[in-house]
Design brief:
alpha+beta; 3 helices; two-stranded antiparallel sheet; 26% strand; homotrimer; 60s Ribosomal Protein L30, Chain: A
Chain lengths: 160, 160, 160
């Protein structure tokens, strides 16, 4: 799938807070947003940054009347959106062929919520690549994440 | 090693609670148990599920007269068994050539136990592939895991 | 870059506690320090071991007048040094071409410190490969690590 088609598909998803006009989050150090090795793109950790800041910085700060699974779902959806944004804005990549692996790390103590939360990423990927064989994934709850983000995704994509 | 030989080798190990007749745990969402990219199989997170449910769901619930290292050892052994089961039941895979990488995530607070616990996975792999060069591995203790599992393994296998 | 050139470059960095004469830390089980698959070397978890033991085994034991970011920086610097040491001491590797991916796991509760801590690894890599495109990286804070280490790095290198 070319970057143009991928951008159009992403726009059709109408995910709140996802902004196509700005650049994706920049690396804050001596590393790259993407390292390409042959036909694989290793994407640095993506978080739920949006045009108006980082969403869901801390589940302690969340109000009680929002379901925590829904918050995790939206957070991983925005993080994987940013991963796609990194891919389409990278000039060395002409096509994104599939997502190979997603590793989701949530700053969350209740393990039973984790799979539903990462579905935000998996559902968006399947929405973009419906005919593709599924990606592999793993999900964990950890102690801390950069920017006190609620989720960080580590993704490998197959490219051309 | 063909799937038939691998199944026979697994049967010879006589690991308690490991059931060859049932299917391996299914993905519970829009992702796959395995994503194949060229000659590598990326296996989604495997946990100590058995025919009678998940073993060692919580170390708090464990009785005190069982050594925690032994519990972790058995849990990672069953999880890597499930990874092998995913490989042999996958119709696109004709041979498993080696295990490239094992990442072990334990829901456990005491770091000094972690290497001994992951040995349950490493020893079984070496039992199956004795002539093979060793796999690489990493091990971490995390806050939470799906199904409150005691361990989750992320594995990359070399296949044909 | 050949192992000889890489060793010389590492020596020029003059990192305290880094010893080129001793062997890198050995695996303590049925796994290898490095698994090579084609032109990628998957390096098992590296920690801040030095010739005089493990540095920074526990941030609780650290004195208050040392900045925690600086401690994490040095710990990840020594851990990535050990990863390079594993590469140059491996007889199957004639050249190290680039670092593809660094995953940093810190035993640390405050997420905002994590990126600065992992810079110790990223800066040393960029020092060694200044003309290279940057590596990808992810960083997490976890509950526990082997040997109660302060940091564990999981690294993939491109080799020949």
């Amino acid at each position: 799938m070319t970057s143009d088609i991928l951008i159009n598909k992403l726009k059709e998803t109408n995910i709140p807070y996802c902004n196509f006009d700005k650049s994706p989050p920049s690396p804050a150090g001596n590393y790259g947003a993407i390292k390409i090795h042959k036909d694989l793109a290793y994407i640095s950790g993506q978080m739920p940054f949006t045009g108006i800041g980082i969403l869901y910085p801390s589940h302690q700060e969340l109000t009680n009347h929002i379901d925590i699974n829904e918050i995790g779902y939206k957070a991983s959806q925005i993080a994987v959106f940013n991963a796609f944004l990194q891919l389409v804005k990278n000039k060395s990549i002409s096509e994104v062929k599939s997502i190979v692996k997603v590793e989701g790390f949530f700053r969350h103590i209740e393990g039973t919520n984790l799979p539903k939360m990462l579905d935000g990423a998996s559902d968006l990927i399947t929405n973009i690549f419906p005919d593709n064989e599924f990606h592999a994934r793993t999900v964990y709850g950890v102690t801390s994440l950069p920017y006190n983000a609620f989720v960080e995704l580590s993704i490998i994509a197959e490219i051309e």
